[in-house]
Amino acid sequence: MALAGIDRHRGSIQLRSGRASYVDTGGEGRAALFVHGLATSSYLWRNVIDQVDGRRRCVAIDLPLHGGTEATPPRDFSLTALAEFVRDCCDALDLADVDLVANDTGGAVAQVFAARHPERLNTLTLTNCETHNNLPPKALWPAVLLARAGLMARMNQRLLADPARARKRIYGGGYQDVRKLPVEIVRAFLEPQAGSAEAARQMQRWLATMNARELLAAEPALRRLEVPTLIVWGTADMFFRTKWAYWLLDTIPGATKVVELPGAKLFFPDERAADLTAALLPHWDAHA
Prior knowledge:
Blueprint: H1 3-7, E1 10-15, E2 18-24, E3 31-35, H2 46-52, E4 57-61, H3 79-93, E5 98-104, H4 105-116, E6 121-129, H5 141-148, H6 152-160, H7 163-171, H8 183-194, H9 197-208, H10 213-222, E7 229-234, H11 243-251, E8 255-261, H12 268-271, H13 273-286
Parallel strand pairs: 3-4, 3-5, 5-6, 6-7, 7-8
Antiparallel strand pairs: 1-2, 2-4
């Protein structure tokens, strides 16, 4: 789906923390709520939404400092604060009993959200994401160290000026064939977090303060989570190895199975949307 196709469904809502951007295809019935991770946005889900629209009301939110959601400083980028941001979006959009689908750091946010608000979920689907103590993942440590040294902000601003280079530098490890990622999507991903010096500094602070404490604190509640949970995992991901999918399966009582996607990398919900949809629809139908 092109940007214009998904943007015709875009709106904004006023939350306690400021204005938030979201995509909502509308329609009757249960909503599917999509949550992205770092350095992407609601655009990550454009191809999945294109395939499942009509089966669900599809809502994809932009986390703070991503997409159309600004992050007015000082901003709390903790997983708990982000989970409460998701809750506030649900309240503002009148979303209840949702089918939650998440990727990357959005998956960590979704775990904390599920631990705190299980009654708001009908089903949960986790794709490659931070899990247990794998936050930040080892492959992200070079970026985290640059952020802690105060060097990431200017680097991201320079990359924004050359989207073709940024595509390879930032997203090359997350796509099987990053050349198919449109440059306009790269620009849309990066502009909110590097389009101004202040945004770049805030993104740098987010990276510099990443840690696993809140994920670990959520584990007792995850071990009691009976919400039907599907785990769909790309097996070639350098950030989140397949062992973490099976850790989730062993940890969450409501987890039904792991669907492995051979060769898929972190951002497969964009690149291999049909494979994710093929797993999602039976999961949703089984818990309709």
